[in-house]
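During the second year of the project, the team shifted from modelling isolated chains to modelling whole assemblies. The rationale, set out in the original proposal, was that interfaces cannot be judged from single-chain predictions alone. As a representative example for this report, we include one of the complexes processed in the last quarter. Its constituent sequences, exactly as entered into the pipeline, are reproduced here:
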Amino acid sequence: MKYTTFNREQFNVFKQPMFFGENVNVSRYDMQKHPVFEKLIEKQLSFFWRPEEIDLSQDRSDFQSLSKNEQHIFLSNLKYQTLLDSIQGRSPNIAFLPIVSLPEVETWIETWAFSETIHSRSYTYIIRNLLNDPSVVFEDIVGNKEISARANDISHYYDDLITYISIYQLHGEGIHQIKGKAIEVSLQLLKEKLYLTLVSVNVLEAIRFYVSFACSFAFAERSLMEGNAKIIKFIARDEALHLAGTQHMLQIMANGKDDPDMQKIAYKLKNQARDIFIQAAEQEKQWAKYLFHHGSMIGLNSTILEQYIEYITNQRMQTLNLEPIFEKRHNPLPWINSWLSSDQVQVAPQEVEISSYLIGQINNDVYKDEFSSFSL
Amino acid sequence: MSHIIKVIDGLLFIPKKELSILEALESQKVQAEYQCRQGFCGLCQVKLLDGEVEYTMEPIAYTNESNILPCCCKPASDIVIQLPQGCEFLN
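Output from the structure prediction step:
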């Protein structure tokens, strides 16, 4: 099915599924099949922030005072965060926009990916502030074995979906000979790949990011690298919202409220979805071991971080109605919640109480007689 | 009028009116999960077995039909809730 940037067909949007229906045409938001995406867009827009709003001058001297193993933990963690947001800044657009069929979902994907680019810009801002030569960090993201193993785990679902969508758009369904290889493409197969990709993105935002957040906040708990933690706090708030986005997509599919094929696929692939969670938790535990292989830091070591991975994995699986895989436990890092709760995100001084502050709100219900007691 | 919150296998109490259900549970030293406290992360969700709640902020997180987000709602009648990890108290 060829992609068109403006579909000339007339169709009822309420009959379209989120993905693989008609190509979108008019970007209208007055009629919405799934209004939750509009709420997500509004929330994300109200969260808008820029890294330059946060002062990092103290962080540079804090960084110099860290021990070698702590510097390793801090920089490796930043590298991992940079990798995750590099992938998330582009992939939702490339993978999901060509197949999306509802304008509110399309705009949510764009808004979501855009906010990830702010995160990537933040890492450059942080690294530039810490090091005279930021290339040392950025170049290692591609060269470092541990990091590139992560990159492969994360991007292969996306890459596979993107390849199959390209073939589908050029050749449609059927068995196609491409570079001497017979490749079968069917809508069913594409939908299965989409489902698994969404689960893997959900895992990325639900588990992988939180391992890195824990490290960033552990430094700040000791009053070190606090500027960095403030930025990560904004990033964590955004990620919780993105997570809500993929949870909604997956649940809308599983409930059959959207595409009956997707409901069957969600049921059929339940075990595979579970495996994605299991694998990700294992990979993150490996990463925790790598982070602390030169030694741990005060307040955090690989054992506690691994317990946190188990705790957060269980929580996220429960939300998606999957049976938790690890032993039930309480949050082993209870202090992290004060960093993750968004009612405590410090915003501009005039809006201390509400972080989802809307700019340009004017009260129009003021009438002339309200000034009657004034005299000049 | 004040409403009663009953937590299955735990306690029964009348919370202060201004508190969200999550804050009310915390005031009783009940171990409650939370993260964003603004209705979008979904971590705090509990099962509402009986009664009605009123949201003070629009909830965005996905919840199962019988679940509520205690971080952003208050009781609108006497309610009975069940916590996913059971009712445990902070030391």
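Chain A touches chain B at residues 36, 39-40, 43, 237, 240-241, 243-244, 247-248, 251, 315, 318-319, 321, 328, 330-331, 337, 340-343, 355-356 (CB under 8 Å). The longest helix of chain A spans residues 187-221.
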